[in-house]
Amino acid sequence: MNPRFAILTTLALFAAAPTVIAEPAIPTAPKEAPKETPAPPVKPEEYAKTLLGSWRSDMKEGPVTGHSITTYLEDGKATSTGNFEAGGQKISVTAKAKWTLEKDKLITEITDSSMPEMMPVGTKIEQTILSLSDKEFRYTQSGKELTEKRVKDEKPKAVPAK
């Protein structure tokens, strides 16, 4: 299979921009190192404040591996950059979006995309929040449970001017 086609096909199936793709947790044997205490989840009325900042999701689906970083801004905008590889071919995807919360639903609409054939402008993504803390964001999307980890403690307020 053509590596670029494999990447596009896999990513299109997930349709997960701007919060691009994470892999469900697979149970593993406990490690000897002490585990970090998880941050307590926040209440739904605090979702908007806690969601602000940058989150990383990792994926491995068939021949495609990669990660994305999505940043939610206070002004209701978001940016996402994904870097993926399949069969030795690398691809980067960027997107801009606007986001809103309706109770436990995060609704994101693509406003700009570097790959409109995969993420057309106007595409809406709905994620049902399972839990959200300062360190971890768990949700379901298209029937899959996904997890993202906070990558920065800073919480940007607006999209930088061009």
Task: Explain this structure.
Strand 1 and strand 2 form a beta hairpin. This protein starts with a helix and ends in a 12-residue tail after the last strand. The protein is mainly beta. The protein has helices spanning about 5-15, 45-50, and strands spanning about 55-60, 65-70, 75-85, 90-100, 105-115, 125-130, 135-140, 145-150. It contains two helices and eight strands. Strands 1-2-3-4-5-6-7-8 form an eight-stranded antiparallel beta barrel. The chain has a single domain, classed as Lipocalin, CATH 2.40.128. The protein is about 10% helix and about 45% strand.
Number of strands: 8
Beta fraction of the residues? Answer: over 45%
Specify the CATH architecture: Beta Barrel
Residues in helices, as a percent range: 10-25%
| Strand order in the sheet with the most strands | 1-2-3-4-5-6-7-8
Taken together, the total number of domains comes to 1
- The structure class reads mainly beta
H/E order of the elements?
HHEEEEEEEE
Keywords: Signal
